[in-house]
Amino acid sequence: MNPAHKLHFPGCKETPGQAHSNTVIILHYLFIFFFIFIAAQPSIAKPKASDMVIDGQPIDLGQEKYRQLFQELVNQHNFTTPEIQEIFAGLVIKKRVLELMEKPWEAKPYYLYAPLFLTEKNIATGRKMLKQHREILDRIEKNIGVNREIIIAIWGIETKYGANQGSFNVFQTLNTLFDAYPRRSKFFRKEMIHFLLLCKENAIDPKSVSGSYAGAFGQTQFIPSSFRAYAVSFDDDDKRDVWNSVPDILASIANYLKKHHWTMDSTVYWELGSELTDQQLVAAYLKGWRGRVSWEKIKETQAPDIPQSPGKGQLSIVGLELPKNAAKSMRYIAGFPNFQAITHWNHSNRYAMAAVQLAEAISTEPLNGVDH
């Protein structure tokens, strides 16, 4: 061995066995140092979908996933090849759609999220709409069985009572999400097919529809599959018009909630306080909008005065973040089946509670069964 490359320890004379032992010790510490160094490095973030595209870049319709889509449209949904070529011609990516999908409003803490909708203007307009459309709402409550205040509140949250229906081209949006948003590509493929079918069924030009960055449209902000499943005509014609017909718009919102088990005049939520006292309730809260716990368990462990759930249905546990200067950090509520109907509309407990609070603000009656 070249002496210049040999490791020495002062005051010690190495035997061959000691040299080997010392080398093992040094390698051991080198490995430890290496792993500490690696662990200390900032983690490399996975690239966002919006980082992988350029705004306006053409969508490659020759990809296998598009060939399979076109084949399905022809074989299962009676589209012709010329129709498909015309509809899909010139599609490009809308990068802003991806950026917004990566930063949903519902991710904000509740004390920042709710004020976006609980504005003086939104409340005042909601009260005006209750009076203006009283006769339509009377018929909806009688024939469908959903409380008027929650219908108006959802209308107000979704589009500010029709004033803001979205400015994104829905067909471009759905294609952007199908092509360049891998996490939910399959979902938006399904929605694109529903969109093309509803356009065909209702004689609508697919390229003419505007909506949200998630592909929702009209004053109801239905996604395509929800339009086909829940939109109704309530103005004595056969056309389901969620863009311009107020009777259709309000009845379609009501029909959606009714199909998801809304019960007229039933409790929507119940206050549980600032802390959860049972592990089953905590577990249900941590599962988000899908979490459930029995009414009996809540009555036994947290809220002895809670009214019975319709049909003894299970309840959700909702945590709402309070402002940082508040005495407590959280407000917990039990979400009854009516509350859960709203979370089917939008899979966010924050959204559902904002809708409930707006409904209470425009109404003279609370939705938790307690007079204020």
Protein described:
With 372 residues, the chain is mostly helical. The chain folds into 2 domains: 49-264, Bacterial muramidase (Helicase, Ruva Protein, domain 3, Orthogonal Bundle), CATH 1.10.8; 269-335, no CATH class. It is 48% helix and 6% strand. It has helices at residues 16-40, 64-77, 81-88, 95-101, 110-113, 120-132, 134-143, 148-159, 170-180, 185-201, 224-230, 246-259, 279-286, 295-301, 337-345, 349-362, and strands spanning 168-169, 210-211, 269-273, 316-321, 330-335. A 3-stranded antiparallel sheet has the order 3-5-4. Helix 6 crosses helix 16, helix 8 (148-159) crosses helix 12 and helix 11 packs across helix 12. The protein starts with 15 loop residues before the first helix and ends in a 10-residue tail after the last helix.
What's the short story on this structure?
It is built from 16 helices and five strands. With 372 residues, the chain is mostly helical.
Question: What value does the average pLDDT take?
Answer: 89
Beta-strand portion reads: 5-15%
- What's the CATH topology name of the largest domain? Helicase, Ruva Protein, domain 3
Between the first and last Cα atoms, what is the distance in angstroms? 89 Å
The CATH class assignment of the largest domain is Mainly Alpha
Tell me the number of helical segments per DSSP (H or I, 4 or more residues long).
16
